[in-house]
Write a structure and sequence with these properties.
Helices cover 39% and strands 18% of the residues. With 406 residues, the chain is of the alpha/beta class. It folds into 2 domains: 45-106 and 276-405, Rossmann fold (3-Layer(aba) Sandwich), CATH 3.40.50; 109-271, Dimethylsulfoxide Reductase, domain 2 (3-Layer(aba) Sandwich), CATH 3.40.228. Helix 18 links the parallel strand 15 (343-347) and strand 16. It binds iron/sulfur cluster (SF4).
């Protein structure tokens, strides 16, 4: 069996036949996973300095020169990188005395950090498959972002205590600003909130949980929902980008709701993180510093939003990006600023970020061309082998060579 590194579910039941390095037949891949496998031969990143093709050795030297010569470099990305590369990344940031950050600083980092600190209850996907009777998808649309989430873990499968599956044993609730594909599956369990209206909905739900009449239009539905949640034996809340962005990063209202639910019964939180090893980076940096993102090693260990990419782009003078595409995800004004800074991009494929980089360094695709380890979005560690040969270096190899050269 092979793994898929197409998203943070890291499916481990993939069967694949190759013909001369080309994917021929696959089993168990979703459409996103199949596209990921097919990308082996599509839009691969080439090694270049200032837009001119160069040997990888020369690109490593150019990258080291940019990073070592910078006064305030930022090392960013790491979601599409192995645990081995992430550890090297932290070492590189320490050696440079630079800042290090990942996309969780503008998405779900707050929730992940609370989970790692033990302040928010969590569980594994295996627990969910075996025991969960209520799944809440809050600002989360895994049917689009993590296509096998519902079929493998959260809704459709039968489990130890959930032998009758979704027909009788599981309930899906979706809270979102639009009727997403996941909301369409949840049908009657869909609660539409206006953009930024999540705290208001949570407040109404808290009131209903406390036996009060909620101050919302559809009081009856919210009261029924509260009754359902009170009766849950093993509840799970899956969070997505919609929740992270709903209130500009202030998630106190959400944490209060989770706390209240756990006074009544058991509800665990599992964030649906985007890139395949976002959780791995958050854990790696947390183990080293006690923080999941936005850390500076300039004077010991400093942490705060001022060391996250969104604020730091104003003052940093070089950026190395590995396994991520911030220029595609950040607001246009920040992407524009990134284009004005010397960027070193390390990745398997061409991206918006690599197109504006001064130095580009290709790497092998983890799980297909290179072996390595990663943490699934629920924190479970997986180790994968390579499936096909590649002349490209693994991400950790590129990181080590830059680390030696700076
Ligand atoms: S759900 Fe994610 S890990 Fe699983 S096959 Fe699809 S893309 Fe790959």
């Amino acid at each position: 069996m092979a793994f898929c590194t197409g998203c943070s579910l890291l499916c481990d039941d993939i069967e694949v036949d190759f013909d001369g390095g080309e994917v021929k037949k696959t089993l168990n891949l979703c459409r996103k996973g199949r596209a990921h496998y097919d990308s082996l031969g599509v839009d691969r990143l080439s090694s270049a300095v200032d837009g001119t093709a160069a040997k990888i050795d020369d690109c490593i030297s150019a990258a080291a020169e940019i990073l070592a010569g910078a006064k305030a470099p930022l090392i960013f990305g790491w979601g599409n990188s192995t645990l081995e590369a992430q550890r090297v990344g932290v070492e590189l940031a320490k050696k440079l005395g630079s800042a290090i950050d990942d996309p969780s600083s503008y998405s779900q980092g707050i929730i992940t950090e609370k989970i790692l600190k033990g302040e928010v209850p969590t569980c594994t996907f295996d627990d969910i498959r075996n025991f969960a009777d209520v799944s809440i998808f809050w600002g989360d649309d895994p049917s689009s972002s993590h296509p096998r989430h519902l079929s493998r873990f959260s809704y459709f499968p039968r489990g130890e205590k959930r032998q009758r599956g979704y027909e009788e044993d599981r309930e899906a609730i979706v809270v979102d600003v639009r009727k997403s594909p996941t909301a369409q599956i949840a049908a009657d369990g869909f609660f539409k909130v206006p953009p930024g209206g999540d705290p208001g909905f949570a407040e109404a739900l808290m009131a209903a949980l406390g036996g009060k009449i909620p101050k919302v239009e559809d009081k009856k539905r919210v009261l029924n929902l509260a009754t359902k949640l009170r009766k849950a034996k093993f509840g799970a809340i899956f969070t997505g980008m919609g929740l992270a962005h709903s209130t500009g990063g202030d998630l106190d209202w959400f944490l209060s709701l989770v706390g209240r639910l756990n006074e009544i019964t058991r509800f665990s939180v599992v964030p649906s993180l985007g890139e395949y090893n976002t959780r791995g980076f958050n854990q790696t940096l947390f183990d080293e510093t006690g923080h999941v993102n936005s850390v500076s090693f300039k004077d010991g260990v400093d942490h705060g939003p001022e060391f996250g990419i969104a604020r730091l782009l104003d003052s940093c003078d070089a950026v190395m990006v590995m396994g991520s595409d911030p220029a595609a995800a950040l607001p246009a004004s920040l992407a524009k600023r990134l284009a004005q800074i010397p960027v070193v991009a390390v990745g398997a494929h061409r991206t918006v970020t690599s197109d504006l980089a001064r130095v580009t360094i290709p790497m092998a695709m983890a799980g297909l061309e290179a072996r390595g380890a990663a943490l699934r979005t629920d924190g479970m560690k997986v180790e994968f082998d390579s499936l096909v040969d590649s002349e490209l270096p693994a991400d950790s190899e590129v990181g080590k060579r830059i680390l030696e050269a700076v």
